[in-house]
Specification:
single chain, about 375 residues, alpha+beta, Helix Hairpins, HSP40/DNAj peptide-binding domain, Chaperone, DNAj Protein, Chain A, 4 domains, four-stranded mixed sheet, about 25% strand
Length: about 375
């Protein structure tokens, strides 16, 4: 195999001629331009071998001396007759990536990178009871989804015919004097096929804007300011990438009786003086809609707290419920008549206890 013949060069070719020839032939036989063509792949390997040998001064010198790439009879083999070696004037690129940048891009070798779809964000308002028990709420979102007409390609379906500008060759040739130049066909981008028309439904974007109602399950016990994630319900991804997510920020309205503190629920319970002094049992409202029996022991003081286990909100972490914390507040009776006043005075005389610090006088 004569390496000069592989590149279509004379034995006295300059380094620039070698690089130009390599670029021209690589454009024609690169595997990315001829996917699945084993013959083209084999020729490309020979072109690369010839180029790497002849562009290196030491290896070229050895080859010219007959030390490399000889057939069994000691002669350099020749081959690839019939090649079009007329192209000249292609600028040399220092690196392989630069050499093939325009070619590979034109032929689709550099495909766009997949890009995950953007996340969407919504806010919903819930009542205290809805947040405590959990609810399924419909949320209307406007999202970008993959166009069903073109499956996200942005082009009309079907195989386009050969490009009329280059007659399917992918390149356009021009003659200047005794030199023939070839360049990638601008009409088809070097593919040899007519450019497909943009999808009429999405205008070539590959995506469409669509509003839909998503049923979102709000878990029991969610708190004010918490977020719920709905996977895969954001904008569609590009080039096969997954869709983004939908995040629902929850605003929980205040309750006239209950107040959240983590997973615990707090409430204030007013009780009468005699209930606090003598003790009692009281049915208190529970945040789940039922009632809870609270035992108030004798001598209970105002502000004292009692904890009812597992009557609070469900934990978002493990589902365990918090407690219902009841704070008692003593309510003074309304004295409406002399009989009530006399009873209170008698109670004071019998009890004989002072609630004031020593040394403080009574005030009228």
């Amino acid at each position: 195999m004569d390496l000069y013949v592989v590149l279509g060069l004379a034995h006295g070719a300059s380094e620039l001629d070698i690089k130009r020839a390599y670029r021209r032939l690589a454009r024609r036989y690169h595997p990315d331009i001829n996917p699945g063509d084993r013959t083209a792949a084999a020729r490309f390997r020979q072109i690369v071998e010839a180029y790497e040998t002849l562009v290196d001064p030491q290896r070229r010198s050895r080859y010219d001396s007959g030390l490399d790439v000889e057939d069994g009879g000691g002669r350099r083999a020749s081959g690839f007759e019939g090649f079009d070696f007329s192209m000249r004037g292609v600028d040399h690129s220092a690196t392989f990536g630069d050499l093939f940048a325009d070619v590979l891009a034109a032929h689709g070798a550099r495909r766009p990178s997949p890009e995950r779809g953007a996340d969407l964000h919504q806010t919903i308002a819930l009542g205290f009871d809805e947040a405590f028990a959990g609810v399924v709420r419909g949320v209307t979102v406007t999202r970008r989804e993959t166009c069903r007409a073109c499956a996200g390609s942005g082009r009309t379906r079907g195989s386009p015919g050969p490009c009329p500008s280059c007659e399917g060759s992918g390149s356009v040739r021009s003659v200047r004097g005794h030199m023939v130049f070839a360049r990638s066909c601008a009409a088809c981008g070097g593919t040899g096929h007519q450019r497909p028309h943009a999808c009429e439904r999405c205008g070539g974007a590959g995506q469409q804007t669509r509003s839909e109602t998503v049923q979102v399950r709000i878990p029991p016990g969610i708190g004010d300011g918490d977020r719920v994630r709905v996977p895969g319900t954001g904008n569609a991804g590009l080039h096969g990438a997954p869709a983004g997510d939908l995040y629902i920020a929850v605003h929980v309205a205040a309750h006239p009786v209950f107040r959240r503190a983590g997973d615990d629920v707090h409430m204030v319970l007013p009780i009468a003086i005699h209930e606090a002094a003598l003790g009692t049992r009281i049915d208190v409202p529970a945040p789940d809609g039922g009632v809870a029996r609270l035992r108030v022991p004798p001598g209970t003081q105002s502000g004292q707290r009692f904890r009812l286990r597992e009557r609070g909100a469900a934990s978002a972490r493990d589902g365990r419920r918090g407690d219902l914390v009841v704070e008692v507040r003593l309510m003074l009776p309304t004295v409406l008549d002399e009989r009530s006043k006399e009873l209170l005075r008698e109670f004071g005389r019998i009890n004989g206890e002072s609630v004031r610090a020593p040394g403080r006088g009574d005030t009228e």
